[in-house]
Write a structure and sequence with these properties.
About 35% of the residues lie in helices and about 10% in strands. With about 210 residues, it is of the alpha/beta class. It folds into 2 domains: about 150 residues, Glycoside hydrolase 38, N terminal domain (7-stranded beta/alpha barrel, Alpha-Beta Barrel); about 40 residues. It has a 5-stranded mixed beta sheet.
């Protein structure tokens, strides 16, 4: 088994100020996110920074905003150039994520060919294909951020459609109790619970 050392949360948002402390307790060494650049009023100032928890713990962090396609870029020269132009810390490595990320799929052969071709274009930054852990080991954050990472664009998500969230939680509790009592009672059809759990878990997808 291998423990994840990077807290990779590109498509989630609204991070509490204590997250660096919690992450460090879990063995996490670095954090990466994307959506913080969707703010509609206060622009987030850093790409590379130490996120400081209330207890003083510091978590090396990257907030990246790919030029085109969010975290699902295709390695086009225009998107690489746009992200480099927007990258605040030119003295730090730039994180450029690519592939079909939202829903799975990853990179394809054409994207990998483009990635290698980027290095033949003089005005573009040099590209190295690397794992996230290796890349984050290279950053040397100078800037510090204290407090939550708030996403203005998605304000109110936690409290909206509260009835659906309440019913989803009740379904979780009832399904768990039903499985416990079914186990005590004897043999039962696992497929029934599998189907019900799939329905409940589908409603926990982050865009629901």
């Amino acid at each position: 088994d291998r423990l994840a050392e990077v807290l990779w949360l590109p498509d989630t948002f609204g991070f509490t100020a204590s997250l660096p402390q919690i992450a460090k307790l879990g063995g996490v060494k670095a954090f990466a996110t994307h959506k913080v650049f969707w703010n509609d009023t206060n622009k987030f100032p850093y790409n590379v920074f130490n996120w400081v928890a209330p207890n003083g713990e510091e978590l090396p962090s990257i907030a990246f905003g790919n030029g085109k396609g969010g975290y699902n870029s295709d390695f086009s020269s225009s998107s690489v150039l746009q992200q480099w132009q927007n990258w605040n810390e030119k003295n730090q490595p730039m994180l450029y994520s690519f592939g079909y990320g939202d829903g799975g799929g990853g990179p394809n052969e054409i994207m990998l060919i483009k990635a290698n071709a980027i290095n033949d274009i003089p005005i573009l930054p040099k590209v190295t294909l690397n794992g996230l852990s290796e890349m984050l080991n290279e950053i040397k954050p100078i800037n510090k951020w204290r407090g939550e990472l708030y996403l203005e664009t998605h304000r109110g998500v936690l409290t909206s459609h509260s009835k659906m969230k309440l019913l989803n939680r009740k379904a979780e509790i009832l399904l768990r109790e039903a499985e416990i009592w079914s186990t005590i009672a004897g043999n039962y059809d696992h497929n029934i619970f599998r189907r019900l759990w799939k329905t409940v878990l589908k409603n926990q997808f982050h865009d629901v």
